[in-house]
UniProtKB/TrEMBL annotation:
It holds the Pfam family PK_Tyr_Ser-Thr. ATP binds at residue 239. Gene3D superfamilies: Phosphorylase Kinase, domain 1, Transferase(Phosphotransferase) domain 1. It comes from Rhodamnia argentea. SUPFAM superfamilies: Protein kinase-like (PK-like). This is non-specific serine/threonine protein kinase.
Length: 525
């Protein structure tokens, strides 16, 4: 496994990035074969770029899933494709429940399949992308194409179908024929109105004052985010995917992936999608969070964030993660929980955002192995960065780090490149709350809440994933609802417990810290 590259995003956030993202396969399920569009050629290209990727895997759905309780393997040379990210599965017409759409429930725990109307809505997204692709294929730019689109098309070597890809294309045609054979017009649509819509470029330009630099409110590894105002006065955040080093098709795949997941999320502690735009770039339109990210409020201000708010944020993020892990038809693993991906509403209600790396896993897969490993250093669970293992527990680990940030006011990785987990571990082991608590808080925190938070954090950042609580338990622990007494007792004998756990496994506490260190050195070299 090649060592992942690191971007230069400062010491606080070393983000792992990939040279190739298997999620690009998502496109293969979204383009229609009936048009010889760029999008289709793109699909074939994306497919063919997977080394050893079998034709059967062209839809990104494994031919044969792992046995119940087994591990889903994403590595291409295993002959299986990735657990598809995002949209790929949403409009699926397959009868196999495991390959059906995400259909996350609306604030309820009941999973629902997508309706015909929902599928139709998705088709409109696909059509918009196809139109965009088709425009770019035109040998001479049409006078009707917006200038921004011309810029985007300039110099880009979109490949049309080649002899080498013809065979795969034929296969794709067959794969898609079943879906495309469905008469969209003949669908008897139930009354379903999506809460999000398509925005054209003119609307986005007007809202953001032509993406004026003054409206730039955030810049991540993949996107620029602009503040905007819609004609009805509503404030929005327009997330524009950056061109950077990624190929167009990979960017499109990332975009569809994020859109596919976020469009189905409906929870007060998760970012709310208002729409998307595919003209002049790829855009997500999101509800604006007035306080920006937790990272900026916690670390970017001289004023100390009061404990009451910190605890509210902790509980809210835990609720949001619980929803993602348990209230969707398929479990959504966020994979990039960190302070800069937690946005704060007017009244400091936290919202989990940036679903660019999120994955959903079939119910019967206990876990999944991915390559390349993506995420942000300081928040990566050991089993993930060492072996690429993905399940809910990697989010639990990252949540533990976030909790430590809230408790201590420290960064996940400090200016001396020390990981917060490494710094906090000895203090957590002896339950030294005085040393752990952010000195800026002085004595203003609720001692019970602080006790519960530190204990929960110590369990969440356990190096053995099986020793970490799930997010249902985390919520209960934070709220002191279930087993708080039991946890209190554990906190008293916390050190003994943790040492016991160390003894149980060869993979000891020391090994874990050494691995973390080694991994960090690798990244920062
Ligand atoms: N809805 C929003 N309201 C206010 N600010 C936002 C909103 N969405 C994003 N931002 C700001 O923009 C920043 C970058 O957004 P985001 O994390 O989605 O971009 P990204 O490129 O995907 O990031 P990453 O590097 O984590 O992949 C956030 O940290 C936040 O400060």
């Amino acid at each position: 496994m090649a060592a992942p590259l690191s971007t230069s995003r400062g010491l606080q956030e070393e983000k792992l990035v990939s040279s190739f993202d298997p999620s690009s396969l998502i496109i293969t399920a979204l383009v229609s074969p009936e048009q010889n569009s760029t999008a289709e050629a793109l699909a074939v290209e994306a497919d063919s770029r997977m080394p050893g990727h079998g034709e059967e895997g062209a839809r990104g759905i494994p031919e044969k899933g792992p046995e119940p309780g087994g591990v889903g393997k994403e590595e291409a040379n295993e002959g299986r494709a990735s657990s598809p990210r995002g949209v790929l599965e949403i409009p699926s017409l397959s009868s196999d429940s495991d390959h059906s759409g995400c259909g996350c429930s609306s604030s309820s725990a009941t999973a629902e399949k997508p309706t015909a109307a929902q599928r139709l809505h998705w088709w409109s997204v696909v059509d918009a992308l196809k139109r965009r692709s088709a425009r770019k294929l035109l040998p001479t730019p049409s006078p009707g194409i917006a200038r921004a689109d011309e810029d985007a098309a300039r110099g880009r070597g979109w490949k049309t179908t080649t002899a080498a890809t013809t065979k795969k294309k034929k296969k794709l045609l067959r794969i898609h024929s079943a879906e495309d054979g469905m008469d969209r017009g003949a669908l008897n649509l139930p009354a379903w109105k999506p809460t999000w819509r398509s925005f054209d470029l003119a609307e986005l330009v007007a809202a953001t004052d032509n993406f004026c630099p003054e409206n730039l409110i955030g810049k991540g590894g993949h996107a620029e985010v602009y503040k905007g105002r819609l004609p009805d006065g509503q404030l929005v955040a327009v997330k524009r995917l950056m061109k950077k080093d990624k190929e167009e098709e990979i960017r499109t795949a990332d975009f569809l992936s994020e859109l596919g997941i976020i469009a189905h999320i409906d929870h007060p502690n998760a970012a709310r999608l208002l729409g998307y735009g595919v003209d002049g770039g790829l855009h997500l339109v999101l509800r604006f969070s007035p306080h920006g990210s937790l990272a900026s409020v916690l670390h970017g201000s001289t004023e100390s964030l009061e404990w009451k708010v910190r605890f509210k944020v902790a509980v809210g993020v835990a609720e949001g993660l619980k929803y993602l892990h348990y209230s969707c038809q398929r479990r959504i693993i966020h994979r990039d929980i960190k302070a800069s991906n937690i946005l704060l509403t007017e009244d400091y209600e936290p919202q989990i955002s940036d679903f660019g790396l999120a994955k959903w896993l079939p119910e019967k897969w206990a876990q999944h192995v991915v390559f390349p490993i993506e995420g942000t250093f300081g928040y990566l669970a050991p089993e993930y960065f060492m072996h690429g293992i993905v399940d809910e527990k990697i989010d639990v680990f990252a949540f533990g780090v976030l909790l430590l940030e809230l408790i201590t006011g420290r960064h996940a990785v400090d200016s001396t490149r020390q990981s917060l987990v490494m710094w906090a571990k000895p203090l957590l082991d002896v339950n030294n709350i005085r040393e752990l608590a952010d000195p800026r808080l002085k004595d203003t925190y609720d001692i019970d809440e602080m006790q519960r938070a530190t204990l929960t954090a110590s369990m969440c950042v356990h190096w053995m994933s099986t020793m970490r609580p799930d997010m249902k338990k985390v919520v209960q622990m934070l709220q002191g609802e279930d087993g708080s007494q039991e946890w209190k007792q554990k906190s008293v004998s916390g050190r003994a417990l943790l040492l016991d756990a160390c003894d149980l496994e060869d993979y000891s506490c020391t090994t874990y810290l050494e691995d973390l260190n080694r991994h960090m050195q690798l990244l920062l070299e």
